[in-house]
Amino acid sequence: MRFTWFNLMPWPDLPADFREKNRSVWVDIDSKLFDPARAHDVYNMYMDLLEYAGTLGFDGIGVNEHHQNGYGIMPSPNIIAAGLARRTSDVALVVLGNSIALYNPPVRVAEEFAMLDCISGGRLVAGFPVGTSMDTNYCYGQIPALTREKYAEAHDLIKRAWTEPEPFAFNGRYTQLRYVNIWPRPVQQPHPPVHIPGGGSVETYDFCIDNTYSYSYLSFSGYIRAKALLAGYWDRVAERNAPDASPYRAGFAQTICVAETDEEAERLYSEHVLYFYNRCLHVFPGFADAPGYRTIKTIQSGALSQYAPVRGGYASLTWKDLVEGGHIIAGSPETVRQRMEDLIKGLNVGNIFCLLHVGNMPLDKCMYSTRLFAEKVMPKLRNMFPEFADDNRFWCKPLAKQAKVGNLPDAATVAASMAR
Amino acid sequence: MELKTIATHHVPVHYFEGGKGQALVYLHGAGGLTAEDPFLAALAARYHVYAPLLPGYGPSQECETLRTMLDIALHTADVVDALGLSDPILVGHSMGGMIAGEMAALAPHSVSRLALLAPAGLWLDAHPVPDIFAMLPYQLPQYLFHDVEAGRARMAAGTKMDDPEWLKGFLVTNARQLGMAGKLLFPIPDRGLSQRLYRVRAKTVVVWGDSDKLIVPAYGDAFKAAIANSQLVRVANAGHMLPQEQPGAVIEALARLS
Questions:
Q1: Residues on chain B touching A141 (C-beta within 8 angstroms)
Q2: pLDDT tens digits along B21-35
Q3: CA of B86 to nearest chain A CA: how many angstroms apart?
Q4: Do A287 and B134 make contact, defined as CB atoms within 8 angstroms?
Q5: By CB distance 3.0 to 4.6 Å, which of A13, A14, A47, A88 could disulfide with A279?
């Protein structure tokens, strides 16, 4: 199993009446709610937590990209990952990912990911989301009906930039470059492993199967509601005669809260979980799905209604609803272990993106929950798929010899060296 | 009105045809066009009307190879050619007006009579056009109609929001039509027409509803100023959907081209 400690980086100070006074947490959220001095603390707390998770035995620490978003203050995950690369060792840096249709030219992603891979000594796990309609269309102005074509072209360009040994000319519809020849190049050859966040479209299933990329379902509605979507993926894997149905071909994001007992979990975490589901997920429906962003095939498949958030919206859900509906997995280590087993077996997923920081959870509670998961839950889930224990296709391959970071000689040693 | 099909280089295109008189090509707006449209009937009473449906609209299949303003303007010129028409009266509403204006700028010797009904295509910072792509259906009537309640009733006719199959059909239609419209209008409905309008040689009438809240009447002045041989006609008691709300007044304005 691969467990990644994942942080969305929510803004922790959305007011109690946020839903009533604002139409959306995303795209046109009130800039007056953002306090840069407070953000100084928040960013550093979140980066501290990511680094902390890196010391507890998680396989990866994960970041992602959102724009103009009150629950994800990370327009550039690469900046965060660069900081983490310097302050961690061993743990994978899971950047899930860069919305490659938004970078101009997209070789910027090939370059920055190669930089991260070099700085971290081959610890990068890369992700290429199409991006939500909120980010891609409404915040970044991409034409909805052309977004996927632009994405596909950007992907081809990045992959070639990583893998072709000679400079080449790229004559794309959206990007034309005479000399593609990125410097630096990634440590991991032929390129870092790639995970693709998807939302149930057959095209994305096929894209992952064809490229040996891992398919990730990053939802907030939990593992029970995800069964149909992942089942669709595994059906497709079988239909397409993929060489195997390795669980590492898939990943899933799950909100997890661990305490000593189920009651303690509710007492400690309920307010923070409800903060997330009530305030952070308050997105104006007009921004959810720009016409043309989804393919006609996807809409016709009925996938959207099938995987849509619960009727009445997240805000109507109580702690009990969220736990029973599997939106969150919360409770004692044993409760969480059982439900994680259900998730892992039920969805057949080898990559788990653990959302252990939730909403406006303060540092100490997050550390508490994270440590309990790492020490009392994670070890018991390690051998869920022994037959695929050697499947490393979807994970990073760090250099055996890692640089010693921040280990400069003192001034006297430098002076002595100069004197020689 | 008869629904017919014509082959083009890209995809077969469906079009409505009806009426007798001078040939007139009508290009619909982003909301599309149905056979029952009162404006089509009003046009057919005086002209021989051809109203093509853009790829993705109505039964016209979508076309992935039409991506840009130039692609779509040339495609529409192909449709006019395929219909065997030479210099028909060219009329466009909203997005259709944007396409018609572009066609008249690209081929000034092929378009001698042009009517732009509340056309899209320009952007004035002082009057930002509201984002129709982020609107929910219930929010549209206030921007589209002078008589908001009547407009709301017209838009709601035949909807069955509680029927999942109907809703799926609605979402598909919306994605096909507005997905296509987004190629011209998203995120800002400006593809550089302002720097090409000087080329238009057609005798042009620009028609605007006094109560247009989507593309406000200031845009009418901007179009008039940009097209040399043009006149501006303002229509009372009409919003952005002026062809539907005041078809008679629009037909009267078209008479100025003859």
A1: 186-188
A2: 999 999 999 999 999
A3: 32
A4: yes
A5: A14
